[in-house]
Q: What sequence folds into this?
């Protein structure tokens, strides 16, 4: 089991910088699977690398199908449901959007996964179409259904991609805010206080990008309050105070801006060096 866990951890660590190399390396993973519980996490990285990073939809589907013939495959475990949904997501990505044989939760999960993949590849219109299809299928999902988390991830990724654009159309802005609100809703169901706090941060950033400083400040305050209520570390508090400062500056409230900026800088000073590098852009924005 240790060999599989180490293999999987290294694959996740390397895949962002070298997806093609990791995809080739994943062929070794089938032989390392020792228990039925290892099939689902292996399926996740197969679909993620082949789909989101490489757009090798057919190859990814073939590799997922091979798992069904693995000696450790268990029809009563987590893997059958997950593999069915990931196969549907990759099929959607290939252009075949048939939903035959898929229940509502399957559809919600598959549309969310392919939406996250497509937005990463720059296909925002198709990503949003699939995301909305996922939302249509989502009512009635239990909070612990993996589809809820998949929708939260897709919503956050869509909102972030649109917020980071140098310019947006009116429709882009509306989509951005819709996605950010959905991320807040679904992370509150799928995650804990940390995910909810970060979703509030994303909402604040998106409202600022939309030119709505009033609502940006409201969400920034929620972000800060969640940090305070849950004893968040200096890293989370830095970003919460920094986005509050930006919202105050946009509202021309100089006093509140300086207070929030001072709080952000104090949290930044408390960070270890390896965390400070993630703060550089936000730090520059409140200079």
A:
């Amino acid at each position: 089991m240790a060999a599989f866990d180490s293999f999987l951890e290294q694959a996740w660590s390397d895949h962002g910088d070298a997806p093609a190399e990791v995809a080739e390396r994943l062929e070794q993973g089938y032989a390392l699977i020792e228990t039925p519980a290892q099939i689902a996490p292996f399926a996740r990285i197969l679909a993620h690398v082949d789909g989101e990073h490489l757009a090798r939809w057919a190859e990814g589907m073939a590799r997922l199908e091979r798992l069904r013939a693995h000696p450790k495959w268990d029809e009563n475990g987590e893997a059958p449901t997950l593999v069915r949904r990931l196969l549907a997501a990759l099929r959607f990505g290939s252009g075949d959007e048939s939903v035959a044989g898929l229940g509502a939760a399957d559809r919600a999960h598959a549309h969310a996964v392919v939406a996250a993949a497509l937005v990463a590849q720059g296909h925002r219109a198709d990503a949003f179409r699939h995301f909305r299809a996922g939302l249509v299928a989502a009512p009635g999902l239990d909070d612990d259904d993996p589809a809820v988390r998949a929708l939260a991830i897709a919503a956050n990724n869509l909102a972030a991609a649109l917020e980071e654009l140098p310019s947006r159309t009116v429709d882009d802005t509306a989509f951005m805010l819709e996605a950010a609100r959905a991320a807040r809703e679904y992370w509150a169901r799928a995650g804990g206080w940390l995910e909810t706090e970060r979703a509030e941060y994303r909402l604040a950033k998106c409202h600022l990008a939309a030119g709505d400083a009033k609502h940006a400040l409201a969400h920034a305050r929620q972000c800060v309050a969640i940090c305070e209520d849950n004893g968040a570390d200096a890293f989370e508090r830095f970003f919460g105070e920094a986005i509050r400062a930006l919202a105050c500056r946009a509202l021309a409230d100089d006093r509140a801006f300086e207070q929030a900026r001072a709080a952000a800088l104090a949290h930044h000073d408390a960070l270890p060096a390896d965390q400070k590098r993630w703060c550089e852009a936000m730090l520059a924005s409140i200079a």
Remarks:
- The mean pLDDT is 97.
- The radius of gyration is 21 Å.
- The CA atoms of residues 5 and 38 lie 9 Å apart.
- The first helix runs from residue 2 to 14.
